[in-house]
Amino acid sequence: MVNGQSSGFFKFTRGVKKGDPLSPALFILSAELLSRLLNKLFEDKSFIGFGMPKWSEHLNHLAYDDDTIIFASAHCLSLRKITVVLGKYEKISGQMISKPKSSYYIYSKVAHGLFQAVGDSTGFPRGGWLGFRSLKDVSRALFAKLWWRFRTTKSLWSNFMWNKYCMKELPTVVQFRKGSKVWKQILNAREEVEHDILWEMKSGTTNVWHENWTGLGALYHVLPEDFPINEDLQEAAQLRQEEAWNDQLFDQSFTEEITNHIRSSVQYEGSEDYWDGQYWMPIPSGKFSVSSAWQMLRHRADTNQEYKLMWIKGVPFKISFFL
């Protein structure tokens, strides 16, 4: 029925009826054709693909359902070879690539002339900028996560690492000595994030000098260099006398400023829990996340003063729209 009137039968020239069980198989065959044609480009010595480490597998595309992402360099000849493959796929399969719905993305810091060159070679419109995160910054954030887990969880892995590398030493004072690359990177993360781990007093097992239980950082580094350290004082529980702080020990061990800060800011629950609690200071929830570690550790570009003056809080919408 067409517009309420009988119009006979439709004659199929390609494809299958909707819901036909043969449809997925035909789609997979056609998608496999495109994938193999793209992979075959690596056999062409003049083809320059997306930059990958020498030890890794070649990669030039990812596909899911009917969406395909093609990774390529900005080499014009190589881009034209890709468009030839796409044209060949259209001719063989009968499927047409919708160029208005396709686009290319490029890193924002490349030479400006490449934008037009890539567009001319592919025939696709530009989709915008491609803001890659620095893999070095991401790696630092992930090693910060390992340090957090090593310090705050009691697991088979953390016990193994503790016994292998720390033995009877505190993790915060273990020196950089022989060990695996992973352990050395974890120690690098220690230098960057340990001061952001706040130990909340429950049973008082936290080390007084080398762990951050006051919010000021490790007191060993906060106290003046010429201030004497009481080596007999190790756990925070030793600073308690029944239900209150030991004033005499405070006066002997800390400066007046630190003593006043502890009395006003540090809460001691006196819980029977064996381990003190942990709080991740960079975010209000106190729960560690890789995202917050990345925000804290990532390398930031210098602030553009012109943009800073332009984008201020309270700019009227009419003005911000044109900016």
TrEMBL record:
InterPro entries: RVT-Znf (IPR026960). Residues 288-323 form the Reverse transcriptase zinc-binding domain. It holds the Pfam family zf-RVT. PANTHER family: REVERSE TRANSCRIPTASE (PTHR33116:SF67), REVERSE TRANSCRIPTASE ZINC-BINDING DOMAIN-CONTAINING PROTEIN-RELATED-RELATED (PTHR33116). This is Uncharacterized protein LOC104231409. The gene is LOC104231409.
